[in-house]
Amino acid sequence: MNATADExxxxxxxxxxxxxxxxxxxxxxxxxxDGGSEVxxxxxxxxxxxxxxxxxxxxxxxPAGSAPDGVxxxxxxxxxxxxxFPTVPDGAEDVxxxxxxxxxxxxxxxxxxxxxxxxxxxxxxxxxxxxxxxxETLLDASxxxxxxxxxxxxxxxxxxxxxxE
Length: 165
Description:
The protein is mainly alpha-helical. The protein folds into 2 domains: 5-99, Orthogonal Bundle (Arc Repressor Mutant, subunit A), CATH 1.10.10; 108-164, no CATH class. Helices cover 56% and strands 5% of the residues. It is built from 7 helices and 2 strands, in the order αααββαααα. The protein has helices spanning 5-15, 20-33, 41-53, 95-99, 108-128, 132-148, 154-164; strands at 57-60, 77-80. Helix 5 packs antiparallel against helix 6 and helix 6 (132-148) packs antiparallel against helix 7. It is globular, with a radius of gyration of 17 Å. The N and C termini lie far apart (42 Å).
């Protein structure tokens, strides 16, 4: 199974959030249920990394004392991000029942702040590298982030626009 960023987001969204190990298991189950295809761990890791770079997935570490059952304190969860159009891949519909993971809900403000911090760091890196393609992509993503979470990125957007002028 070669899941797209939107399919990764769709699987994660079925649960609210998953660790990387849980996502690996969920995709393996979905692949099995959809005809027994294999999930290449190296390909999956690269796709997760690209989904994180594009903000289709967001890495979120719940605050101390609020980690969901089955998640170690300090362990990151992957959450469907602001640029994703979550799509459940074939075979994944029943995965929540198979893995027996309760749906997870997160504080939207805390999650939004995590995404804002990641966005700012990514924007600073793109500006430092003079990566105009990445800057243009981030400009578009900034609107998605603001719609997705209660954050304001006007200052970052202005910095990105200034670099392009």
